[in-house]
Design goal:
The protein has about 475 residues and is mostly helical. The chain is about 45% helix and about 10% strand. β9 (about 195-200), α6 (about 205-220) and β10 form a beta-alpha-beta unit. α1 (about 20-30) packs across α9, α5 crosses α6 (about 205-220) and α12 crosses α19. It binds one RNA strand of 75 nucleotides through α4, β7, α5, α6 and β12.
Length: about 475
RNA sequence: GCUCCGUUCGUCUAUCGGUUAGGACGCCAGGUUUUCAACCUGGAAAGACGAGUUCGAUUCUCGUACGGAGUACCA
């Protein structure tokens, strides 16, 4: 059995959108789970629409998603000579022909066909023309595709799909300027790159039948096809910019961890029994085309968040800190100072299972990130009224000479609450406001432990004095 | 127009002819709780529609409806 080779072949005409990212992920999982190779090819034969910025965005997106590929990035445009070579070989074999029809002639043909309710596929009069009759004019090279019988696609996802050959047109292989067209380029590239499994969007299912004509004419073995359904927006319509069709870098900027993104995307349109939450290793082991569904899936941010929250919770602190740093960069937030990252690192243990995204985690880490003056948000301000400040003023001295451990702090605070005839909850609000300036924070004990005695007492004192001392 | 593909709770999905149609997210109720989150318990919630095959269809076949894709000298 030959080794598996998959590829991701985006065209660089925009950012790497979520559907493309999932296609890349599927190919990556398939290859990586089988000890195979995963290649990247940029389909840049459309010079007018391809941009280096887009290629860059694709590369960045894949890097963020952790989808590493083997070998160099392959530019399809760079291989134009090879594509032309194959076209000429097809010509020599009589499997392709030169077509001198003008755009006007083709247009006229289509209009007539449409009016007659027939297939609009252009039927070139040059298909069987004698070379002696060829004019000295520009021409395109078209594939002489079969006209009878049917083409059968054995697709791993779609099953057996039969298309009558009469519905296949003689597609253009080489433009009149001699440059190759995508349909030719994919086939030649996939063949030359040794691609064994073509996993791509099902918008290419029809194309597969047409491309198979080239394989047959060249006598090449077909790859295994798996045409996966596209992702739709929340309204079930085609994904548009308004809902979810954002570039993957925007998901990074929104603060989703990439492991969660991979998990969610893998689960979108693919399943392995009831497993919802899994690691990369599990996904690689489990992934196969048999688990891919046939119907389009919709993107759901709620579920993404849930999965991401679970991944944040199991990520080790060092990796998490690193990813948060990268997130801040992607979101154009100021870099963390040394003190901030030290404190954040120390606080991660009590933060990571309370947040679904990095912004949420950072929001809860607010107490650890403040340096200097604390601004009290309105919701917390009511916990710092005169009465509360009095309580804090009475409490603070009692924390002067205790050993700064969780047990000790719990003991002191509980005793204080009891002595003053109040429930601990009554005490927690003011403490939270004093330590973080917020109403929603991690446990007050965790905050005091992370901040340390000196800073904790400083903040308590400041709050007790009304914040104006 | 023509060709191809799809359709199970709101969403992602399981089911490979016989199930009280399962799980997850979300939602609702209750519990726990120093806030948030988490957690625990319970609940509502689905086979597009119509025929056919079969002892028996969510599952197989056909049709209809609705979505999607392709039909380029775009990819």
């Amino acid at each position: 059995m030959t080794a598996v080779v998959t590829r991701f072949a985006p065209s660089p005409t925009g950012y790497l959108h979520i559907g493309g990212a999932r296609t890349a992920l599927f190919n990556w999982l398939y290859a990586r789970g089988r000890g195979g190779k995963f290649l990247l090819r940029i389909e840049d034969t459309d010079r007018a629409r391809s941009t280096p910025e887009a290629t860059d965005a694709i590369l960045k997106g894949m890097e963020w998603l952790g989808l590493d590929f083997d070998g160099e990035v392959i530019s399809q445009f760079d291989r134009a000579d090879r594509h032309a070579e194959v076209a000429n070989e097809l010509l020599a074999k009589g499997a392709a022909y030169k077509c001198f029809a003008t755009q006007e002639e083709i247009e006229a043909f289509r209009e007539e066909a449409r009016a007659a309710g027939k297939s609009t596929h252009f039927q070139s009069p040059w298909r069987d023309a004698d070379a002696a009759t060829h004019p000295d004019a520009p021409y395109v090279v078209r594939l002489k595709s079969a006209q009878d019988g049917e083409t059968v696609i054995n697709d791993e996802v779609q099953g057996t799909v039969r298309i009558k050959n009469e519905n296949l047109d003689d597609m253009v292989l080489l433009r009149s300027d001699g440059t190759p067209v995508y349909m030719l380029a994919v086939v030649v590239d996939d063949y030359d790159m040794g691609v064994t499994h073509v996993i791509r969007g099902d918008d290419h299912l029809n194309n597969a039948a047409r491309q198979m004509g080239i394989y047959t004419a060249m006598g090449w073995d077909l790859p295994t096809y798996a045409h996966i359904p596209l992702i739709h927006g929340p309204d079930g319509k085609k994904l548009s910019k308004r809902h979810g069709a954002l570039g993957v870098e925007e998901y990074q900027a929104m603060g989703y961890p990439s492991a969660g993104m991979r998990n969610y995307l893998a689960r979108l349109g693919w399943s392995h029994g009831d497993d919802e939450f899994f690691t990369d290793d599990q996904a690689k082991e489990w992934f196969g085309t048999d688990g891919i569904g046939k119907s389009p899936a919709r993107f759901d941010f709620k579920k993404l968040e849930n999965i991401c929250g679970q991944h944040i919770a199991i990520t080790d602190d060092a990796a998490l800190l690193h990813e948060i740093v990268m997130y801040r960069e992607a979101a154009n937030l100021p870099a963390l100072t040394d003190v901030q990252s030290q404190r954040l690192n120390a606080a991660l243990y009590c933060l990571k299972d309370r947040a679904k995204t990095f912004p949420e985690l950072l929001e809860k880490a607010h107490f650890a990130l403040i340096e200097g003056e604390i601004e009290v948000e309105p919701k917390a301000a009511k916990n710092l009224d005169t009465v509360s400040r009095g309580i804090l003023g009475a409490l603070t001295p009692q924390l002067q000479n205790v050993s700064w451990t969780r047990d000790e702090l719990e003991a002191v605070l509980n005793r204080f609450a009891e002595d003053n005839g109040m429930k601990f909850g009554k005490l927690a609000g003011p403490l939270r406001a004093a330590l973080a300036g917020r109403a929603a924070t991690p446990s007050v004990f965790d905050m005091m432990l992370v901040l340390g005695q000196e800073i904790s007492l400083e903040r308590l004192t400041q709050a007790a004095n009304g914040g104006d001392s």
